[in-house]
Amino acid sequence: MIAMLVSGYFRTKKGKTFPIWFPLILIYIILLPLYILASIVLLIISISGTRDSTAKKYLKLFFALPQIFGAMIGTNITVENEDANFEVNIT
Amino acid sequence: MNEERMKILTMLAEGKINAEEAEQLLSAAQEKESEMNLSGSNSSGKFIYVNVEPKNTPGGAKIGRVQVKVPFALIKAGFNIAGLIPKEAQNEINNELKQQGMNFDFSNFNPENIQDIMDSLEQLTVDVDNEDSVIRVFCR
What we know:
The structure holds 2 protein chains of 2 kinds.
Chain A: E1 5-12, E2 17-23, H1 25-48, H2 54-64, H3 66-71, E3 76-80, E4 84-90
Antiparallel strand pairs in A: 1-2, 1-4, 3-4
Chain B: H1 3-13, H2 19-39, E1 47-54, E2 65-71, H3 72-84, H4 87-99, H5 111-122, E3 125-129, E4 133-139
Antiparallel strand pairs in B: 1-2, 1-4, 3-4
C-alpha cells in the first residue's frame, strides 16, 4: 500500500483556514512513464548480458524509491505559533 | 553473518567459484536482504516523535509548538535505499560530506548494520530542556 493523499490545513492569526488537499496519484501519474522507460532499459541491459553495469545499479536504486511512498503513510507535521497554525498529514 | 553469505564464502574457499563470482553473489545476497528488510518495514507500526513545547517564560523568546511524527518504516526505507546507492556515488557523497566536516561512510549501510541502527533507534529518547522550550525525541 502506498500513500495516496497529503491533507492538512493552514490557519492564520485571524482565524481564516485554508485546507490543503493533494492527491499523490498526480505524482504517480507523472512518474509512471519514467518507470515504464526504466523497465525497458533494465530489460535491454538484462538481455544484453551486462553483468556489472553501473546503469543497472542506478536502475535498481530507482526502482527501490517507490518504497518511500509506502513507508511515509502516517507522517504528521504540526506547527503552532502566534501567527499561524499549520498541519500536514500523509495518508 | 547469515547462512547465505557463509555458503558463498565456503564455495569460494572450496574453489567452486572464483573471487569475482563470489563478489557478485554477495552483492546479490545483500540486495535480497535489503529488499526483505524493506518489505517487512511497514509491520513495525512505530513512529519517531519530535516535540518542541515552548515555555511560557516572561520576556523569553516566543517560539511555536512543533510536533513531528515520522513512521519508523520511512527511516528504515531511507537506510535501505542508502544501502542500494552504487559504490561510485557513495564515494562521491562521502567526499562531499568530508569536505563539509562530516566524516561519514555510506558504505557502512549494509543490512546487518541497518538492523542494529533500527534496534538502537527504538530505544532512543532525547530530552532537551532549555530556557525557551522543552524538546523531546522518542520512539513509540
